[in-house]
Amino acid sequence: MIKVGNLHDMMTDISWLDTLRGEVFSKEGIKRPKEGGKPEGAEGDKEWQNAIDAGYNPTDVYFEMFDQNNIVTSIPKFHTCGRSRHWWITKMNPGNFMPMHIDPHTKQQKNTDRFWIPLQDWEHGHIFMYENLSISNYLKGDVYQYNNSQAIHGAANIGLTARAVLQITLYEEE
Q: Do 170 and 84 touch, CB atoms closer than 8 A?
């Protein structure tokens, strides 16, 4: 995972980021995985089965998800190099966690690039793992790109405040 910059340096107006964070922090999102059940696309998924075998409860809610279906604030159109764009926001409240996993959609989409953009500065207890790296001390609007869109990753919030991240995937249509 590499830091490719910060939205402050890439855009003239990033006030939408604060508006977005405020909206996400003021309401509940869609409980994930799948309202407290098996994640979509996880049928036969090795990482999901490994998590269950390790003792994770498959009916726990790991985070809340927001996207264009449950959020009013719009996300600017980033340059996509002619590819389609899929975005969502994950909000993890204190005590939430997400076992190490590979997102199923990246296995199905072609020529994917993944980006991870925190909506607030890093706080103690906000944990993001990408393969063997722990990402910390990030700033609101930092843009990180996955070296491999199918890399294993996970997150936890053992802090005292909610944590929210905008995630963007660029991909080619089949």
A: yes
Q: Which CATH superfamily is domain 2-172 in?
A: Jelly Rolls (2.60.120.10)
Residue 61 contacts residue 36 (beta carbons within 8 Å)? yes
- What are the sequence ranges of the domains in the chain? 2-172
Evaluate whether 89 touches 55 at the Cβ level (below 8 Å): no
Alpha carbon 1 to chain centroid distance?
14
Quote the percentage of the chain above a pLDDT of 90.
49
Q: Which amino acid is at 7?
A: L
Report field, pTM of the whole predicted structure over 0.85? yes
